[in-house]
Amino acid sequence: MAVDLLEKLRQMLLDMQHSGRLSYIDPGLYDDARTYVEKRKTDYYDLKNPLESRMGSLIIEEIGSVTETVQEIFSVRTRQILDLAFQQMEGQYFDKEEARKMLPEERAMYERIVSAIEECREALVHGEAAPFGADGAAAAGRSDEADGIPEPRGTPAVPAPRPVRSPYALVHIRSDVESFMGMDGRTYVLKMGDIVTLPENNADVLCEHDIALNIRLNK
Questions:
Q1: d(Cα 159, Cα 145) in Å, to the nearest integer?
Q2: What's the structural domain count of the chain?
Q3: What stretches of the chain adopt beta strand conformation (E)?
Q4: Is 104 among the domain residues?
Q5: What's the predicted TM-score (pTM) here?
Q6: How far apart are CA 177 and CA 193, in angstroms?
Q7: In a domain, 146, yes or no
Q8: Gene3D superfamilies of this UniProt entry (predicted)?
């Protein structure tokens, strides 16, 4: 199953990159990949001295290969969906057949992107008073004026800060560590023996303190 799944993922990725168009994918693809990764993690934990065995290295390589390929599939499809959203908003030719190839989650993302672009255009180009249906923002503006602090017309609300994104690294946790907030904004609760992907900056800190071992995979 390992070889079959990985080859299936890689072939799918190659087809996507070659065609440049959104294609049909098995609705259960992501679930199958997650199930495979969890099974291989269990296989790894069942080994005696996994870090010192050839089998342990092979399992880690399989986990990394599947994880990276699935992430790349997601990235390619997301870029293609963004292109479709811009095509629709710019009034270009839009292939409805491609829209039918989206997974339900992708379709929801697509519709939100199109809606956000339209609302932003209405706010900036046409000067709508309350962009993005921001009832809360409009109410906040009225409140500021009531306090004697006039708000400049057309000034958008300050967006909430977004988590800092960074590259990820696959690491093996060598000792228990207290929960912490990663550079990606997620909370990590780790224990000795875990194999996880962490933001590279966080992984470097744990490795420097000999808490984690960076598992560097061959591309």
A1: 20
A2: 2
A3: 168-173, 180-181, 187-188, 195-199, 212-214
A4: yes
A5: 0.60
A6: 11
A7: no
A8: 1.20.58.1030, 3.40.5.50
